[in-house]
Amino acid sequence: QVQLVESGGGLVQSGGSLNLSCVAPRSIFSISTMGWYRQAPGKQRELVAVITRGGSTNYADSVKGRFTISRDNAKSTVYLQMNTLKPEDTAVYHCNAHFSADPQNINYWGQGTQVTVSS
């Protein structure tokens, strides 16, 4: 059973900041593109940001300029620094590890951490 363990969620006022962390098993982390996704009540899960093994990043338009994804390969940890938070950022944030094992695409998910932004 592969476990991705998220931490750092909580309640914050609009305009505030939070830093999420996700630790993955080293054997998985080292071969994976890591990402953060979120799911708000009544909505589908959506991509927030991803970072490749080489450090290339991609962000949802809604978070560009406010969120920063990074990874520490020595600690097998991916981070999501969230600044200037808005009420619409309220969601459960899930960590994802993705890699290809031809012909399959493999995905592992964390259980999620709640982020609530009050207006």
Notes on the structure:
By secondary structure, the chain is mostly beta strands. It is built from one helix and eleven strands; from the N terminus they run E-E-E-H-E-E-E-E-E-E-E-E. Strands 2, 4, 5, 6, 9, 10 and 11 form a seven-stranded mixed beta sheet that branches.
- Helix-and-strand structural type: mainly beta
Shape: globular
The level of helicity is under 10%
Which parts are unreliable, with pLDDT below 50 for 5 consecutive residues or more? none
Describe the sheet with the most strands: 7 strands, mixed
Give the strand content.
Answer: over 45%
Structure in a nutshell:
This protein is mainly β and 119 residues long. It has one helix and eleven strands, in the order βββαββββββββ.
Give keywords.
4-stranded antiparallel sheet, 119 residues, 1 helix, single chain
Layout of helices and strands:
Layout: E1 5-7, E2 10-13, E3 18-23, H1 26-29, E4 33-39, E5 46-51, E6 57-59, E7 67-72, E8 77-82, E9 91-101, E10 104-109, E11 113-118
Parallel strand pairs: 2-11
Antiparallel strand pairs: 1-3, 3-8, 4-5, 4-9, 5-6, 7-8, 9-10, 9-11
